[in-house]
Each structure stands twice: as C-alpha cells, then as structure tokens.
Amino acid sequence: MQLTQKETDFLNDFRDQELLCIEKYEKHAACACSTELKNLFNSLAEAERSHLKTINQMAGGTVASVPSSLSADNSCCGCASYCDEQSKKCDEFLCRDMLASEKHVSSVYDTGIFEFSDPQARKMLNHIQSEEQQHGEKIYAYMKANGMYS
Predict the structure, then answer these.
(1) How far is Cα 145 from Cα 69, in angstroms, rounded to an integer?
(2) CA distances from 97 to 1, 3, 48 (A)
(3) Is the four-CA dihedral 10, 12, 13, 18 of positive or negative sign?
(4) pLDDT of 7-54, one tens digit each?
(5) φ and ψ at 44, to 5 degrees?
(6) Residue 46: C-alpha distances to residues 21, 53, 137 (Å)
(7) Contact 91/37 with Cβ under 8 angstroms?
(8) Rg (Cα) of the chain, in Å, rounded?
(9) Contact 10, 54 (CB under 8 A)
(10) Alpha helices, H only, the chain
(11) Are the C-beta atoms of residues 99 and 137 closer than 8 Å to each other?
C-alpha cells in the first residue's frame, strides 16, 4: 500500500493516541484500588498494544486481514468490593478519565477513516474504531455495576 502524506499523518496521530492509551491504562491499572479494575485496565492496555502493532504495520505499507468479527465478550468484570468511599471515588475518577480517552480516540479514528483511499485500510481502521467503542462499553459496564454512573 502506497501512503499519501495525509494518510501518513493520520497514522502518526493514531500511533500517538494508541501509545497514550497504553500508558494511561498501565498507570491507571497501577493506581486502581480494585483488583477487577486493575484487570480490566490491563486487558484494555493489551488490546491497545494490538492496535499499535496494526498501525505500525500499516505505516510500513502492510494492511493485515481484518478479523471476521469483534470480540463477543462485552461482559462486565463485576462488582468490586470497596473498603471505603475514597477508594471508590479514586477508581471512579480513573474510569471517567479512560472513558473520555476512549471517546476521543474513537472520534479520531472516525475522522481518519475517510482520508484513506485503500478499502482494506478503511476496513481495518473501522474495526479498530469499533474495538475502541467496545473498550468504552466495558468501562461503562464496570462503572454502572459499581454505582459510578448515573
């Protein structure tokens, strides 16, 4: 795949967003009070690493095959048992921050998808965007299950 300058610029932006998400998920996992949230954030960091790998491949001119479907696992990791309100508030802040990040990343992909001429590249970017939306759904489900979202 031959990339235009605009496509290269978008891939660089996608790469920056994925790196930021990875760093935030790792740092937030380390700060999270509940084991369930730590596990969720670590899992989402791993998914972001997969996105980064795909973006780097695209920057090198290769578009991997788009997976046939999204992961069907949208289940919440369950209710956490918080020993105090301060711990719950801390985790709520981390969740709100990552939910806002996922919303932003999804919108960046939404804009960028339209700038790519290669149909396979657009399909792959659409797939990544859909996974970013699933990440937001998982965070929302955790927050809802733990009384953090009204």
Answers:
(1) 26
(2) 36, 33, 16
(3) positive
(4) 999 999 999 999 999 999 999 999 999 999 999 999 999 999 999 999
(5) -70, -35
(6) 10, 11, 16
(7) yes
(8) 16
(9) no
(10) 5-31, 35-59, 85-113, 119-145
(11) no
